Amino acid sequence: MSKKEYRFAYEEFDSADELNAADAALLKRAQEATADAYAPYSHFRVGAAARLSNGAIVTGTNQENASFPAGICAERTLLSAAASLFPGVGVDELAVSYFNEHGPSDRPISPCGICRQSLQEIEQRTGRPVRLVLGGQKGKVYIIPAAGQLLPLAFTSDELK
Length: 161
Ligand code: THU
Description:
Layout: E1 11-13, H1 21-33, E2 44-52, E3 57-61, H2 74-85, E4 91-100, H3 113-126, E5 131-135, E6 141-144
Parallel strand pairs: 4-5
Antiparallel strand pairs: 1-6, 2-3, 2-4, 5-6
The structure holds tetrahydrodeoxyuridine.
């Protein structure tokens, strides 16, 4: 038997004011995108914005449904849009923000489990890491160098060979 340990490092900023200009601009796009969310059930509006390796900026929002499981998160809305508009193009950086209609939006959220799986697929498919910028409308910001770090021991296409 051997013990294994998994660690990952990420950056924590006290506020978006500490970010470099490109990161701050992408997070702002994600914050603004929350206005386009369709979240009449949770009232938790999520916005995502990505810079692709061809320079394009793509946004996505959560789109809920009266049949709750049919709803989709902002991150996967974005990944589907990006892969449809620009097939095979890497997602260099993805910012996620939110606006909680029921309370403060002053700390980062991080992608749900299903979105982590989709993020790892796009990393594997394009061969490029997706850098995450996570922040609310204000407060701390986390930067995670590669989304796949959030899904250790992931199930990947390698298993299907
Ligand atoms: N949601 C996202 O869009 N992204 C996340 O990272 C977490 C959750 C959405 C799903 C649902 O519409 C609402 O937020 C509440 O869970």
